[in-house]
Amino acid sequence: MIRAIYPGSFDPVTFGHMDIIQRSAKLVDELIVGVLNNRAKSPSFTIEERVEMLREVTSGIPNVEITAFQGLSVDFARDCKANVMVRGLRAVTDFDYELQLAQTNKIMCPQVDTMFLTTSLEYAYLSSTTVREVAAYGGDITRFVPSVVVEKVKTKMRKLEKENAI
């Protein structure tokens, strides 16, 4: 059985993330999407909100499970008894960073292999940061995130705007 993890911040989940989730779920028996609770970052959405969004948008994919984690992705893989870590690549700059990370992870946990999937061309430009920035200025994000996420992002941006106006 091939059990894989796909770790990330997903702040918020985008069509690019969904592309990687859908494609990798077809290649493995079980895919655990790990939502990183990174203390070094200040995400717009709480860990609970990000987990819930992902559960909503992946509910139709039977072999996908969503869970939160903190710490190193390689430790998360070990804890999940996963033998594959899925990573998405948008550009050459992603590859340099991800290759170094994969090699480090292989030294730390030799039983976990990293599987790189290039993002489909239609999403190669897309990032959660871009989505948040466009939304913060009132732009249309319907081409970037699943429909259930659109209103959540807009609501969050309005809330953050009010908090920052004080």
TrEMBL record:
Q: Which CDD domains match?
A: PPAT
In this chain, ATP is annotated as bound at 9-10, 17, 88-90, 98, 123-129
Please list the coiled coil stretches. Answer: none
Keyword presence, Oxidoreductase? no
Return the annotated site residues (Transition state stabilizer): 17
Q: Which GO terms describe its biological process?
A: coenzyme A biosynthetic process
| Family annotation (InterPro entries) | Cyt_trans-like, PPAT, Rossmann-like_a/b/a_fold
Q: In which pathway does it act?
A: Cofactor biosynthesis; coenzyme A biosynthesis; CoA from (R)-pantothenate: step 4/5
Q: Which UniProt keywords apply?
A: ATP-binding, Coenzyme A biosynthesis, Cytoplasm, Magnesium, Nucleotide-binding, Nucleotidyltransferase, Transferase
From the UniProt record, list the reaction(s) this protein catalyses.
Answer: (R)-4'-phosphopantetheine + ATP + H(+) = 3'-dephospho-CoA + diphosphate
Q: SUPFAM superfamilies from the entry?
A: Nucleotidylyl transferase
The family database entries (NCBIfam families) matched by this protein are listed as: coaD_prev_kdtB, cyt_tran_rel
Record's protein name = Phosphopantetheine adenylyltransferase
